[in-house]
Amino acid sequence: MPSPPPTGDAHPYLRAATAGVRHHTRALSRSRRPEAMDRTHADVLHAHLTELHRLLDQLAETARPPHPGAGRHLAEAHRRLWQATTAIHAAFHLLPTAYGDSTACRPDRLPEGPPVLTICQRHLAASHTIRRKTTPTDLSRPHTTTCAR
Predict the structure, then answer these.
(1) Nearest CA to 89 among 70, 103, 75, 101?
(2) Are 98 and 23 in contact (CB under 8 A)?
(3) Residue 88 near residue 46 (C-beta atoms within 8 A)
(4) Of residues 118, 54, 123, the one with CA closest to residue 88
(5) For the chain, which has fewer Cβ within 10 Å, the N-terminal or C-terminal residue?
């Protein structure tokens, strides 16, 4: 039995998150002096990607049994999003700090002090999910999924 068509108010939190990202992007592009990427920006972006990563993980798990093809594509998106999250984490450590440049994970030396959940702690927690379900080879292979059912 086909699923009912989506309504305009389906998934309001996702729609709000998308609108927020869209608004932020437009605000940056319209600014006369665009903000340079800083550690706070990277931290917020990493938090957003990490939550999206968790959502994709859950969606892939629920889609896989009834729709294996869709589940495989969602699992692939899950892996690719992890690569983006890892790149943002690496960029965070290459951005300058008030304490000088640092590429090491040192949560006690973040500019605002150690927040409740620092970017490194968040990244480590998210890495457990991806490592349970993938291998290092999976994460480094090129995109190869097809649209075949």
Answers:
(1) 103
(2) no
(3) yes
(4) 123
(5) N
